[in-house]
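Fold tokens
===========
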Amino acid sequence: MKDDLVLPTQIPWKTLKGKDLEECLYWLIDSIGGKELEWRLGGEGDGAPDQGRDLEAIFHKDEPDGEISRQKWWIEAKGRTATVAATSVKESILNASGKKELDVLVIATNTTFSNPTRDWVKEWQLNHPRPIIHLWDKHNLERLFSRHPEAVIRLSMDALTPQGRLEVAKSRFWNYSMYSDRPTLEYLWQHRVELELDYPKFLAIFISEIANGNIMNRPWTNLSDKDLSLRIFGHGLVNLLFFCSRASKAGTSETPYVQGLAFLLLIILDKFLLIKSISILYPYGIV
């Protein structure tokens, strides 16, 4: 389940400040669909002025008439040890209000905003429809991280449940053509009875095993019957060109993907036709 991907109590909120908070926000914005992301390194307290934001992003919004509008977002990180001061929030909003090209301003913190601060923002928004102001506190970030665990992995692997780690493995595989490493595969195998595996997740793990050199160490295919194996193979075949194209752009070898499909085909033949294709052909490098 999506709500069970992250353990919020394991996120190091107290130390999530400065560039650590900015990096998490960067990957979070990327995960929720932000484009043309720009991380303005050297912002508040670190050198070059950030002019009121730490990150910039573009979102494309579907309009009721079917058109797609372009929204410019600024995201400002406020890492604190206590509640964010109202003056800091007001300064950020007043600075952003003079930017005609800006549509949305997000002010994010690892702590909280006071009720008077929130009331001031609501009052200000009534008289200033642009930019739209979002205040993301610790609780908002918990919910967003739970939906997008790939942003959390930069903080701590301990903050992810087994299903969360599987979700990250799937996201990295299909979105960035990245194979999971051996420690991740070993961990997922140890927790396999807890995992909810669909076709994309299964392929992400299965093909990563091939990329790491030995599919026999953890026999993931034993978790599926012949009908399920056939459907997984079909899903992999349909997405073959998509994955290979993305892998080529990312500089990743697509060979494990092709080998994985070949191996799945032999398993299907073995299960349907009762032949010993895998044990005969695998040692000879046919898959």
Notes: The first strand starts at residue 35 and ends at 39. The mean pLDDT is 83.
